[in-house]
Amino acid sequence: MAAIVKARSEKRAVRRAGEAGKRVEYLAFVLAGETYAVQIAHVAEILRPPPVTEVPRAPSNVLGVISVRGKLVTVIDLRRRFRLDESPMDRKTRILLADVGGGEQVGLLVDEVHQVWRLAPEEIEAASVLGGEQPPHIAGIGRPAAEQGTILVLLDLRPILESP
């Protein structure tokens, strides 16, 4: 009997591992009351905002620079980037350190970080479901099956970081 239970447990573990391999992890955060998410593989760290030094003549969506372990990191205000109403920083505000490539990182200022979602391919829809033409930074829409009614706007960081 114990051997049967053990065999079933092992089969379930293998099945769960197979399902987990198909899922992609997204870090969910809030901007102006809407929930967005980026692939967690692109996020190196989540920081409480340290003092930000403004940069003269920087693009409007660049909040400034911060020092992270002796390296200067440019901080982009995603509210400004998406042309949302501005809001003062509070105790929930965070900076996501995103890997740009080549060892360089950029900080993304967000209102609040929520949680990590593990989405299966069938829980991700194309951005076209929103209707009309969507900006290039919207990669799709996530609808986690585990949490009915939750909608995540999935972001592609490349267009956000490349264009002003």
What does this 3D model show about the protein?
With 164 residues, this protein is α+β, with helices and mostly antiparallel strands. The chain has three helices and eleven strands. A six-stranded mixed β-sheet has the order 8-1-2-11-10-9. A five-stranded mixed β-sheet has the order 3-6-7-5-4. Strand 4 and strand 5 (71-77) form a beta hairpin. The longest helix is centred in the first third of the chain and has 21 residues, at 2-22. The chain is globular, with a radius of gyration of 19 Å.
Report the biggest beta sheet as strand number plus sense, adding barrel if it closes: 6 strands, mixed
Span between termini: 65 Å
Uncertain spans, ≥5 residues at pLDDT below 50? Answer: none
Category by helix and strand content: alpha+beta
Q: What's the count of strands?
A: 11
Beta content comes to: 35-45%
Helix content: 10-25%
